[in-house]
């Protein structure tokens, strides 16, 4: 049995985890007239080959990618907006970070990290 998992385990140990996400968005927000709700995330990685200047962060909701922008004067934090139509009380979303990483003997390669699925509840006031 272990012989089946050994190749996979060795690949995981060599590549390591691409990154960790810390959701900084409240679990619920009050409904607003713009139907756009702010989301924020901190992303950290121990992957030394990651080229931080190439990061393209997104929030993914309803099958759509919405760009995130860096938070001013705070390292490794990004913010953006998720649209939630009127009458809809929640949205599932996740964060996706695309980047390049250095690879020995070849040009930088594309990589990505995807957060767990989160739920944002919209409440009427």
Walk me through the structure.
The chain is built from one helix and ten strands, in the order αββββββββββ. The radius of gyration is 18 Å and the shape is elongated. The N and C termini lie far apart (56 Å). The chain has one helix at 2-15, and strands spanning 20-23, 28-30, 36-44, 50-61, 64-67, 69-70, 77-83, 90-103, 106-114, 118-123. A hairpin with a 2-residue loop joins strand 8 and strand 9. By secondary structure, it is mainly beta. The strands form two sheets. Strands 2, 4, 5, 8, 9 and 10 form a six-stranded mixed sheet that branches. It has a four-stranded antiparallel sheet with strand order 1-3-7-6, with no helix packed on it.
Summarize this, please?
The chain contains 1 helix and 10 strands. It has one helix at residues 2-15; strands at 20-23, 28-30, 36-44, 50-61, 64-67, 69-70, 77-83, 90-103, 106-114, 118-123.
Topology at a glance:
Elements: H1 2-15, E1 20-23, E2 28-30, E3 36-44, E4 50-61, E5 64-67, E6 69-70, E7 77-83, E8 90-103, E9 106-114, E10 118-123
Parallel strand pairs: 2-10
Antiparallel strand pairs: 1-3, 3-7, 4-5, 4-8, 6-7, 8-9, 8-10
């Amino acid at each position: 049995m272990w012989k089946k998992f050994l190749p996979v385990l060795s690949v995981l140990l060599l590549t390591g985890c691409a990154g960790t996400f810390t959701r900084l968005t409240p679990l619920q927000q009050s409904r607003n007239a713009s139907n756009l709700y702010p989301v924020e995330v901190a992303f950290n990685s121990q992957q030394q080959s990651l080229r931080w200047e190439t990061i393209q962060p997104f929030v993914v909701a309803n099958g759509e990618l919405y760009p995130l922008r860096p938070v001013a004067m705070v390292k490794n934090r990004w913010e953006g907006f998720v649209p939630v139509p009127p009458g809809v009380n929640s949205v599932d979303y996740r964060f996706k970070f695309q980047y390049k990483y250095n690879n020995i003997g070849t040009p930088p390669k594309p990589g990505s990290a995807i957060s767990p699925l989160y739920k944002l509840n919209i409440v009427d006031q």
